[in-house]
Amino acid sequence: MRTYTVIGVPPETQAYAVAKYSRSALSMLESIKDISSKQAGEFLTTFYFQYGHRSIADLAHVVVALEDISILAAIKVVDEPLWDGQERSTRYQSFRRSGYYRPPELAGSLGEQLYVDTCDFLFARYSALHRRLLDLLMRVTSRRFSSSSANGSVETSTGGPPELDEKRRERALRARAFDVARLLLPLGTLTSVGQIVSARTLENQISRLLSDPLPEAQHVGQAIRDACSAPAEHPLLARLTQAAERAQGVLPAELATELRESIASLRPAAAMPTLVKHCQPSSYQIETEREVRALAAPLLAELGPVDDRSAVQLAETESVADEVVATLLFRFDDAGHAYAQVQGLVERVSEETRAALIAASVRHRGPHDELLREYRAGYPIKFDLLLDLGAFRDLHRHRRCIQIIQPFTTAHSYELPAEVFAAGLGPDIAGLAGKEGLIADYVEALDRAGEAVGRLASAAPSLASYALPLAYRCRALFKMDLAEAAYIAELRTKSAGHFSYRRIAFAMFQELARVYPGLAAHVRVTNPTEEFDLLDR
Prior knowledge:
By secondary structure, the chain is α+β, with helices and mostly antiparallel strands. Helix content is 52%, strand content 8%. Strands 4-5-7-6 form a four-stranded antiparallel β-sheet, sandwiched between helices. A three-stranded antiparallel β-sheet has the order 1-3-2. The model is unreliable at 147-159 (pLDDT under 50).
């Protein structure tokens, strides 16, 4: 038996080499030695595009960096079930200097100055709130540490040198302050995303982004496609080239020439020029959204006021066919009705209406299009979540579930500020923050931003969300099995987690316990109202 790993091979060449196992007795290294980029491209063109052997694209993986895109665009980028990556954390980094995305479509419009003024205001309040919260936390915990030391009970929280312990305390408290302050960041805030994905996932992602109504998402999709077709960045090659230049005049001439020629043979190659060249906007996605929206609008208008009483609702079981119809209606509901309300609507509409919605959802499906995500039905556990956008972004990373996200608006407002500060800092410090005017400033910032978003929505509906702060709530349907529900409950209720998603995850567990008490009894959760430690990160 021989087992080994391989690095430094272009993704398409690597995919061809692995695929050859089914067609050749050669070892992988022997295959790689004989494969050129041209041969790999010809193979993929024949078997992937002509014969439809799409699993071959699962064998090619690439690292993609997307930098200086908005948080709103980043949400759309990572909204991919088979996705692995990371985004800049608003919990541990300051975004004060990051700036925000300025949609070119707003340039010269009446809404441009309103958007700029709103984002500038939010960033100023974000920086001030973080600075003042950190000062408050340092003052309060400093008194507690001094008191503990005087009583002889605690010298340091880690047992290490006092100066090191002080740095750890400040680092933990800085992060605590970010947990609250981040809620003032608008969705237009610039961020960065790194992902490692297969060619098949990348192809789906590019096509989905190119089909998105948001212009920035379309630009990002095109940028990914262009990057995969251009020579890839090769940091090691750059270092080798510099070393070879320094070696001139030091190494024997013959050896220096051999080194230079060997490095030249490693010229940067495009990561996936063949596998992405046919990526285009999906007419299935575009036309289906247009047609289903038109059918859904008059039906959803019958629902009346939105029910926002519960942050977490475990949906009742329905037939798979009814679930598909309800999920289609839920996704395109701009008003933000609860899933239970939509389920009730589906029960009342005629069979002809349900059939029309189903027909519209598949009418434009091409020969290579998979069914829409709304068809991923039959999961036993469906959570309707109403949570702030910051917490949503954290839970959005869970891939072993199906997520149906409603449009982002101000319709659901934001959590009660006093509860937010109490959950993030503890009741005592929240009380001090209120006395120092921090909560009042927080409320003023959110109300002003919400009013601006409303005005922007009248002028540029598709762009208004960029000014929406992370404190505002959104609604999303999470479908999953029992194991994933238990995993989210256990992981996301731990004391080091963000207070917003801790509360949501615990409410998910409570709903699970209500319906499946015997199973929920074995889920290891942490009650966020019982365990709170400012320094536990």
